[in-house]
Amino acid sequence: MAEDFGKVSIDELVDKIMRKLEEAGGSSHLSSHTYSDQPILRKGSDWARDREHPDGRVERDGKSISAGKTQTTEPDGSYTHSSRPSRASRMQGQTSTDARKSRATSKWHALADDWLGDYQPAGDFDDDLWGRPLGSGTGLMAKVVPEVKLPPTLQRLRELEGSRGEDGRPLRGGPLFVAQARLASDFVDDCPYQGTLPYRYLPTYQVVSDRELRGYFTWRASWREGKATDAPATFAMLLSYELINGVGCEPGEPVVSELRRLREACRAMDLAGRGPSVTLDVSHWARDYVVVHRLDPRLATTEEERRFGHAVRVLRDAEGSVLCREGVNGRKPSDAPKAPSDEDLWDAIGTLSSTDPGRSPFLREHREQAARVGAGVFRRMALHCGKRRRVGFVDGMLGFTMSTPYMPLVGVPLEKPPTLEGGDMRLTEADVVTCRFNRWVMRRSYELQGKSRDLGRIVHGVDCAMRVAWEYPRQLKPRTLPRYLQTMIDREVQAELERTREEERHRFTVDLSKLGSIRSAAETTREALLVDEEREDYVPGAEATEDWTQPVSPAPAAGDEHAPSREGTQAGERDAAPVVATASPGQPAPMSPQPTTGAEAAGAAGETAPYGLDPLELALVRALLAHEPAPPTPPGSPSVEMLVDSANEKLFDLEGDTVLEFGDDGPHVIEDYEEDLRGTLEQ
């Protein structure tokens, strides 16, 4: 049964162990022969002496002493030998020793079971490791790894490491790697690497072992087939070297695509916490490859980097145009760059500012006014700094234009050093790479890599001042600004407020809800002004067949089946010549018919239509709800198209959308709104 040894002292623990040993096997486990007469550490001379005298004898001061025995001096001056057997006797008695060791081992196992009880180790323990010497190749500290045999292709690859090039010089560095990569460009292996792959920074074929080499080509075959999802650091760097040198992929944009795919796989391993990270190296090599081969700059930059560079260039041009126009520091107006518009300048300020104007509801609602105010403040500050300071406004916010050494494809073994042909390479509008006499330089128009807090304070100050001037309900807490800067903002805001008020005085608005009645009145007026010859269906010589001396009958009520049709009456009136109606003595003279609008007609009909629809519009809507063609409009009334437009305007409040629309067969009710419209008319 297990005992708790953690609550006793060391001395008590040793006493308990000794008692356990005595109870288990008596004194057989304890030997009277100790190794106190032997040195704790053996020196190199001791090991050399053992190799020179394997028989165990060595001469010391002219006396022969057995190495297997240790001489000690007794008190009487005589010598005696210890009972430790010699090396030869130990070799002869190895068989009996192994037998005794196996019996002792079984006793030790039984004793350990009694001490540890139900304790189970975390991993499997190999009983064969008991008694094995460390470093023998089969123990815990040393393990012999079997060598792998290289295929013929990889054997030739290894042979290149000692070969010479065409110029007679030994192959090394980049030329050696490129020659080896081209030799094994199509090689496929099936020997995956087993175990943990060691990390090698900037590896080549020459520094990896044979097992790693075969494991790489196995992984590369799986990667090319799209099956490999992981990208170990050593393998990823070797593959990057091959792609950059045009091995296994067509040079140009396909190489950049493969490097990007490899970068994403490395980033996934970084997120999983597996192995060292080479994501940044692969990203830099992809950018350098685009620069060296003069590919599309968008392949080497992100959308955010391009927007940042464009914003820097806009601010530089705006400042330069102001200073040249005013002739500051000897500048001439003829040297002024093209001045950006207020909207472009405001967008650039928002891109570089720590305060985003797009997040302010007031600035979004009054974008044009805010752009004019912000651009005006920027020009005032640029002129102020140009005249009164040694550092310009943009230089003070973003830093000076700087040039730094640029080393493309650093660490990549190349056959020839990279060169830039055809002039400079512009990555963004503010980043340019140049190469003069094999000296690479990156020229940037800024030093600041992030957002500018100075621009952020200006944007916030503009937002606060404009909210106060426009009496916006929600105000912002103002921040402390220099007095001269606050004065500039207030002046620009006041000028923009006056300009806005002046525009409002000259602006007129149109009430779209009244367009239907305006069109109806215009159509009625036009029809009343037409003479017979101008009418479309006028027939010369036609005589009037109706007696116009009778009083004009009132319009029939809606739904009266016995009343004459409106179409026939209007047709007769259109064909008849205009005659003045007469009245008998004592009776009032009848009034001539006057043109009526849709609302007046609806009142005469005695019917109140929903949403203010007049009888013609109501008849049109009911016909379309019954899936019938649109009824013809009588002369002097609006056309079907105008009726549809006016009905849509009046029914807009019903659905918030157009209810009637034209199709191939004429107007019809939209199917989604048909039930709602029918229910409204039935009420």
Overview of the structural elements:
The chain has helices at 10-25, 44-52, 87-92, 94-116, 152-159, 173-183, 210-224, 233-244, 253-272, 279-292, 303-326, 342-352, 361-365, 367-388, 393-398, 453-469, 483-505, 515-529, 566-575, 598-605, 615-625, 640-650, 652-655, 674-682; strands spanning 57-60, 63-66, 71-73, 79-81, 402-405, 425-428, 431-436, 439-444, 660-663, 666-669. It has 683 residues and is an alpha+beta fold. Among the domains are: 152-162 and 169-299, no CATH class; 303-401 and 445-504, no CATH class; 510-527 and 598-683, no CATH class. The protein has a 4-stranded antiparallel sheet with strand order 5-8-7-6. Strands 1-2 form a two-stranded antiparallel ribbon. The model is unreliable at 1-5, 31-36, 58-105, 115-144 and 543-606 (pLDDT under 50).
